[in-house]
Amino acid sequence: MFVPQIDDLRQTLDDVAGLEGLIEAGLFPDLSADLVAAVLSEAGRFAAEVLAPLNRAGDRHGCTFDAATHAVTTAPGWREAYRQWCEAGWAALPCPPDYGGQGLPVLMGLAVQELWNTAASAYGIGTLLTQGAAETIAAHGSEELRRTWLPGMVSGRWTGTMNLTEAQAGSDLSAIQTTAEPAGDGTWRIAGTKIFITYGEHDLTDNIVHLVLARIAGAPQGTRGMSLFLVPKFLLDEDGEPARRNDVKCIGLEEKLGIHGSPTCTLRFGDEEGAVGFLVGEENRGLACMFTMMNNARLHVGMQGVAVAERASQQAVAFARERRQGKLAGEVVPIVRHPDVQRMLADMEVKTQAARSICFETARALDLADHGATPEERAANAALAGLLTPIAKAFGTDVGSEVASLGVQVHGGMGYIEETGAAQHLRDARICQIYEGTNGIQAIDLVTRKLTLEGGDTFARWAAGVKATLKALAAHAATEAMAGELGRALAVLEETTAQLTAWLAAGDRRALAGATPYLRLFALVAGAHGLGLGALAALARNDAAATDRRLWRARYFAANHLPLAAGLGRIVCGGGDALADGAGLLIG
Amino acid sequence: MFVPQIDDLRQTLDDVAGLEGLIEAGLFPDLSADLVAAVLSEAGRFAAEVLAPLNRAGDRHGCTFDAATHAVTTAPGWREAYRQWCEAGWAALPCPPDYGGQGLPVLMGLAVQELWNTAASAYGIGTLLTQGAAETIAAHGSEELRRTWLPGMVSGRWTGTMNLTEAQAGSDLSAIQTTAEPAGDGTWRIAGTKIFITYGEHDLTDNIVHLVLARIAGAPQGTRGMSLFLVPKFLLDEDGEPARRNDVKCIGLEEKLGIHGSPTCTLRFGDEEGAVGFLVGEENRGLACMFTMMNNARLHVGMQGVAVAERASQQAVAFARERRQGKLAGEVVPIVRHPDVQRMLADMEVKTQAARSICFETARALDLADHGATPEERAANAALAGLLTPIAKAFGTDVGSEVASLGVQVHGGMGYIEETGAAQHLRDARICQIYEGTNGIQAIDLVTRKLTLEGGDTFARWAAGVKATLKALAAHAATEAMAGELGRALAVLEETTAQLTAWLAAGDRRALAGATPYLRLFALVAGAHGLGLGALAALARNDAAATDRRLWRARYFAANHLPLAAGLGRIVCGGGDALADGAGLLIG
Fold first, then answer.
1. Is residue B522 within 8 Å of B493, Cβ to Cβ?
2. Cβ-contact B17, B107 below 8 angstroms
């Protein structure tokens, strides 16, 4: 029940994110259209044949924890699949070439990650964290740290984790209490308890590289007093092989709503002789280092939402084409023939593709931030990636849950039975709206930090890009009506952005109150823009089959989703007062 | 973590549904305001003390099935709680007095059901089905059937079930294959397999009364060839005591996403000597009899959605007031102080109350359909109840899932951990959108059967009622702005209704394509209307504390939910073409 979504990935890479153009422009000398096709095809095959069968096993069996040995065992089949995945070189694909990686663009890494996550999101999340940890070490670690740890992480021999959350420090990392003390030999001793650590302990590899946010004694209070440490499960011997067990252990495994295949651990550091840690980056600059990882992780989690949506959509369409209920013209028909079921399937498809488009537009910006021709182009794209990341994360993951829920609904009563598998997608998708910064945090990040980037120029440049697309859409008879709808929605977005910016400058809390509906409004426009680009590219290419579907997606989204933009704008601009009036009642 | 929502129930009963007025007008001679207060207070106490503690146990332990004996055992504590519930007389409360019931109005039955379901929805659903089965027997059964079976069901000594679904017959009951053959002695022999039977087998009572939809050999094909049979688990001896085991057995228990405390059974009828059944109503009129039960059950399932929303809201507010994260003005504050969290909590509260209002408005219509002064009043209210029932069911249950999902989000990472309990509400709520007719079926019922009631007069009368409220809202400075918003939304609803009605008359499938967004639009207007009535009543009563909260709810809903009405109207009227264009792509 999983067919790799290669066509949609290719379309999005080339027509929305312009990968073909970037290759032709020489940005990625080692990449060609043929290589892109080969990588996607091979990854799709691996995802379908090796990873997809893990999905149910991971959910039903889950991970097990042995309190006596602190060991975590993954579900049957996971160890072997991980070994094959590393052997095939997939771990190295998105990693820097200096340490054994293949250095493919973010766009390619994201496409391949979508395939892993569509196959088994509880598997995908682990690989994503390792990749993020490796990037953080590559960006901020000393030459010695990089040489010591990156080759093992790049090859997949070791995995990485991200240790931020503590019981009292979730969305608010300033409350972190884990401590770090200098050992006198250049290393540090870490002590504290971290919770919700994804793949914090497991049996897939012979070592785990934890990145741990901790506070050095005497450091300033708040987020400016945090430092980042590399704390391995096993310290290495002189040959770089795991040798002595470090003083970090798993003391509990969470029982979660979903992603049961992914162990979520409570880790205890420094219970005995002290956990040996190595400083990554400068003292007290840990949060900035961690943000390298988090921004990328946020995009990838948005994409994880899209991936689960894709899986749920595939399953729902297949079911709706098989399941026969109700007559049309005297004949019992598959339920896909009923308009109300078609609406659910159509919403699933266009939301998934709209969110995918935003994710890949963000990845393009990240690639241009690295490889752009001029410093100006790189800076502008870094800012653009910053603007789009919270939207990719929050909208991608909202879509994940919404589409998975529609998938349950398409199945009717069967959807509520675990055996069917539809409910697993809903349970798995739900975490994505929470981890790597809740979607509320994303909305606040968007409004308070991203709209003001370059004094608002980042947003203005992005909006100008949408206007260019609008002009092209208006020039085609087939997309003219869509252009009108998108133009109206963009105007609402611009007005609303101006209002929020003004409130922000005045310190008016209505800016915060409107953050979540504003993000949704932004995503509707950005998603329609992506679908419009897909339609225009197909029209330009004169590809009749592709054109039908892409034109339809763009027009359906315009007629059935964009009409909510005006109302969302009114809620952002007019709903905050009523919210403030109720604050006292809610606070109690 | 459950405080009976007595104040909101009282407000909704009196100010939205006008129960006080109905009592004063003499419709319920046995009821007084004091009795209403006493019943709610006692039910609240019972729900909080006896039922609420079952909720977690039912979820974690679930029901167990012994394949050898076909026995189902409910979770620890459930048997004893059920016994107490019957002893306290709660089973009898909504039932007809002729058979031992207390004959309280539908409004009171609904209020009490909301309390049971808020405490433990997996418990509530069982009592609701018994009540529906009893009503069906009372309405359609012979005098002998009523005398034989109703007293045991009314007292709660026996429970009832609703056996409709078969593997090939879910939303489409015309495909039912279970057969009935005359035994020659006035009884029938039933054979077939029914699935998804809620409380189809359990250990709470010494008998179970199954209502089974089956086809008599030679009956017409389709829904007009179905008959309804009463098939008890145990046949009775001459003293009316359960004696001989009937040929019906549970052959499997579903593993579901939620409501684990409620056994969902596959029942096999007639494997051996044949299951003895008694015809209820006329031959081939079974579906009409079943609809008596289903309409009432639909309202109650809508209310079950509201109940889970209430429970999730209570838990989220309590958590948000305790959990401290993030600073305001230099001080770490409970997250309830953050505007984005306030928006989630506000949305939870107003959606819950709006959906509750619609459910009780429907119940009022049902009571007036029974007790109205004139045949015209009774007929008009029966039609109104028909119009509102699909909205109560679908919107109430959509709100259940949406609010429960927001509840998870308010908890952040803790919300994804099963121990917290927030995720259980999400899992429990999800079934309500599916059973008793999926929400898509409700939307289609609304558009194709309910808008056309009395040639459209039912809708027109309802809309006239909203206009009267609008006028009153416009006369108060505090609600003037809300009146404007509601007036615009009502105008959209009226225009959209006219368009759908015209399409329906012309056999245009766009009427079906727009059904789901149309139902949402209708619910926004109906929900705002209910909140407006609540605000007006508080203003009239000069009750400052109540006025604050009710005015706020009405204004918040108007400013943060009603603005979507115009977009929904545009989707209904303008989105169907794009959906039809995609039908071929979706069908594949």
1. yes
2. yes
HSE value, Cβ hemisphere, 13 Å, CA-based, for A506: 10
Q: Determine the residue among B340, B442, B556, B571 to mutate to test chain A binding: the one whose Cβ has the most chain A Cβ atoms within 10 Å.
A: B340
Note the maximum CA span of chain A: 84
The residue of A340, A352, A512 whose CB has the most chain B CBs within 10 angstroms, and thus the best one to mutate to test that interface, is A340
Which residues on neighbouring strands pair with residue B188, listed in sequence order? B182, B277
CA–CA gap between residue B111 and residue A445 (Å, rounded): 42
Per-chain mean pLDDT for chain B: 96
Q: Sort out which chain B residues have CB atoms less than 8 A from A314's CB and list them.
A: none
Specify whether A273 is catalytic.
Answer: no
Cβ-Cβ contacts under 8 Å for B187 (sequence gap 6 or more): B276, B277, B278
SS (H, E, C) B185-253: CCCEEEEEEEEEEECCCCCCCCCEEEEEEEEECCCCCCHHHEEEEEEECEEECCCCCEEEECCEEEEEE
For residue A555, list chain B residues with Cβ-Cβ distance below 8 A: 578, 581
Q: Which amino acid is at A224?
A: R
B390–chain A nearest CA distance, Å:
15
Residue B46 banded pLDDT, cuts 50, 70, 90: very high
Q: B544 falls in which pLDDT band (50, 70, 90)?
A: confident
The whole-number pLDDT of residue A329 equals 86
What are B211-260's pLDDT values in tens digits? 999 999 899 888 889 999 999 999 999 999 999 999 999 999 999 999 99
Residue A333 one-letter amino acid: V
Contact A339 B170 (CB under 8 A): no
Query: Phi then psi for A175, rounded to 5 degrees?
Result: -90, 10
Q: Identify the pLDDT of residue B43.
A: 98
Torsional class of A455: left (φ above 0), alpha (ψ -120 to 50), beta (otherwise): left
Q: What are phi and psi of B4, to 5 degrees?
A: -55, 130
pLDDT at A224 (0 to 100): 87
User: Taking the CA of residue A15 as centre, how many other CA atoms within 13 Å lie in the half-sphere pointing to its CB?
Assistant: 27
Report pLDDT for B271: 94
Q: Calculate ∠ Cα A133-A135-A137, nearest 5°.
A: 70
Q: Are B280 and B137 in contact (CB under 8 A)?
A: yes
Task: Give the closest residue to A147 by CA, choosing from A187, A99, A103.
Answer: A99
Residue contact B417–A321, C-beta within 8 A: no
- The percentage of chain B sitting over the pLDDT mark of 70, rounded to a whole number, equals 100
Rounded to 5 degrees, what are φ and ψ at A230?
Answer: -95, 120
Q: What is the mean pLDDT of residues B59-67?
A: 97
Model pLDDT, residue B378: 97
Taking residues A323-346, report their average pLDDT.
95
Residue type, A19: L
Distance in angstroms (rounded) separating the CA atoms of residues A172 and A175: 6
| Region of poorest pLDDT, from B286-300, B322-336, B441-455, B568-582 | B286-300
**Residue whose structure tokens are 């419709």:** B27
Please give the ipTM for the structure prediction: 0.97
d(CA A463, CA A521): 13
Burial zone of A502 (CB within 10 Å; 0-12 exposed, 13-18 middle, 19+ buried): exposed
- Identify the CA nearest to B407 among candidates B351, B355, B359: B351
- Residue A95: predicted pLDDT: 84
Residue B369: which of B451, B295, B305 has the closest Cα? B295
Residue B66 phi, psi dihedral angles, 5° rounding: -110, 105
Determine how many CB atoms are found less than 10 A away from the CB of residue A508.
15
Of A290, A135, A272, A273, the C-alpha closest to A228 is A290
pLDDT of B545 > 90? The answer is no
